[in-house]
Design brief:
- This protein is an alpha+beta fold.
- It folds into two domains: 159 residues, D-amino Acid Aminotransferase, Chain A, domain 1; 31 residues, no CATH class.
- Helices cover 39% and strands 27% of the residues.
- It has six helices and six strands, in the order ββαααββααβαβ.
- The chain has a four-stranded antiparallel sheet with strand order 2-1-3-4. A two-stranded parallel ribbon has the order 5-6.
- A hairpin with a 2-residue loop joins β3 and β4.
- The longest helix has 27 residues.
- This is CRNS1 synthase.
């Protein structure tokens, strides 16, 4: 994307970088899903750290960075979602290849993940770079952004609902893992997802014809 100059005098505006915190969760179907993004502006040579500034929404931060065109801001948002979900997918794929001991337990896995990005100028373009993953700092920052929005009358975001759904799904899987289930009349080929879900949940399934 073209790299516009920040508003105001160039002599008074130091080079800036945009830190973007993203929160992702493992949704139904074991697919990564972006829940929320929160941003902070900082100097390019020393990007702002977690908790050092009040968070901004992605759209507001991009406008402050000089992206006045709504289409460009949507393009950045789409690219951010693509890269954030790809980062979580890579973490999940790496975990799948680890032994239970390496993962931290027989059923240990990543269900909620924070990924930090840096949006900065690279020549005449804006470059989005993934910096690190974390457990709680991105979640804290994004939760603060949503709380600030509620205080000024903005509608609540989806982050709390999506994260709660993810954790409840994980709890349900834990409760039924290892149980014996009898399926009566499980159906034909169209109901094959029943067996796939049972395998993912760790159920021992026996069937009876109708």
């Amino acid at each position: 994307l073209p790299c516009p100059s920040p508003p105001g005098s160039a002599a008074l505006q130091p080079p800036t970088a945009l830190r973007i915190c993203t929160v992702l969760c493992c949704s139904w179907g074991e697919q990564p899903r972006l829940c929320q993004a929160a941003c902070a502006l900082g100097r390019a040579e020393a990007p702002v750290r977690h908790g050092a500034a009040l968070p901004l929404s992605l759209d507001s931060a991009l406008q402050l960075r000089g992206l006045g065109d709504a289409g460009q801001r949507r393009a950045v948002a789409e690219r951010l979602q693509e890269h954030a979900e790809a980062a979580m997918a890579a973490v999940m794929a790496a975990e799948a290849e680890l032994s239970p001991e390496q993962r931290g337990g027989a059923h240990a896995r990543t269900d909620v993940l924070g990924v930090d990005f840096l949006l900065t100028a690279a020549g005449d373009a804006l470059e989005l770079v993934a910096m690190s993953t974390n457990c709680g700092r991105c979640l804290e920052t994004c939760a603060l952004l949503e709380a600030m929005g509620r205080d000024v009358g903005q509608p609540p975001g989806d982050m709390a609902r999506l994260v709660a759904e993810c954790l409840l799904h994980r709890a349900q899987r834990h409760l039924v893992r290892g149980c014996d289930v009898l399926l009566v009349g499980a159906g034909g080929v169209g109901k094959s997802f029943v067996w796939e879900a049972a395998r993912e949940y760790g159920l021992r399934v026996s069937g009876a014809g109708s």
